[in-house]
Amino acid sequence: MAVAPFFMFATGIENSQPTIHGGATRVDEMEKCGHYEHWREDFALVSEIGVKMLRYGPPYYRVNPAADRYDWSFTDEAFEEIRRLGIVPIVDLCHFGVPDWIGNFQNPDFPGAFAKYARAFAERYPWVQLYTPVNEMFICATFSAAYGWWNEQLTGDGPFVTALKTIVKANVLAMHAILDVRPDAIFVQSESSEYFHAEGPSAIAHAETMNSRRFLSLDLNYGIRVNSDMYEFLLDNGMTRAEYAFFMNNTLKHHCIMGNDYYVTNEHRVMADGSTRAAMEVFGYNEITRQYYDRYRLPVMHTETNISQGKLGDEAVNWLWKQWANVLRVRNSGVPIVGFTWYSLTDQVDWDTALREPNGRVNPLGLYDLDRKIRPVGRAYRKLIEDWNTVLPAQSVCLGVPLVMPESTDDQWAVERREQFREQREARRRANEGAVSTNP
């Protein structure tokens, strides 16, 4: 039996797809960044830079244009090329947007529809093992239904809780659907890691509330009981006791890696009136990651970071060095960290306004520019991978499931392993059903 013998160096193809202007405008980053025209070249660049893992997802709104209808034409070609090149995809199925027929994250039918989509994808590509069903659940709910920037463009605690419970339930149901097809699937929950610093004594209460709220998406996803203040907040804003019980009783934590994202914008200063502004980097990735690890006790992967190249052309290179130093510090402190990601492969467009305005401004955040020319940070990342790839042990990872490389999917040991996990899953399901029947 073979377990992947490498630290999971990764990059990603930016595939955000929210809507703005009351749902009238779709912001498709894969289109804006030229991926639909250059996808073969993009995948070749992934191999050129030396990474084995690619955060990548099909355009959800295009693949699933109507209920129970799928168009796999582009996805079939793209994933065949990924497999041919020996790239291991971490498949991102929902990245900030849903198909028009679903509407937005206030729709209670979204979780069921998304689970169908996840199952259909897993059945079509049975060699895929790694998934991020819904990307950055907390950020998606916040930007869509608390800040009013995307999709439903609502503000307030009620819409936020509705979006949050809908998004996390979709993620949980999708994990169950994928496991029914691929029982040894591993889920990398890419989530923003946040911290809120009180500006002064009068802001402490606000900061404490925000520092509890930042955990809500992962608490619900992993079946971790929230504190009393957060429980009241959820119930006061539309979550029922039965909905909360669903999350507590449907944890799939044992199939998960906690992916956490860190940018210079992830730390915030909280004012006395509860407003916030950017704090820039105060604690840094190491400290905040250890806070999340202490709460969830799961293997960790740094799933997103970047910064603009800057006027002197060295800011991104310096940020890469700093993030990598933090990754090593996390690892040396005993936290099982299994991977690192510079996101994304190419520059992005309009993230300087968080995709709220279709200005067409290129953000120099990628390993390559949009002409597919390597940036200094791309050369630095390639060198970092060359230097460290054989040094870091694969102790990947105290996972209970092995990472099966795509080319080994049909090997006898891999088939037998999946069957073993399928039997264990069925046994666990029967035990849970028995527990419910004896405890009405």
TrEMBL record:
InterPro entries: GH, Glyco_hydro_1, Glycosyl_Hydrolase_39. Pfam families: Glyco_hydro_1 (PF00232). It comes from the Bacteria. This is Family 1 glycosylhydrolase.
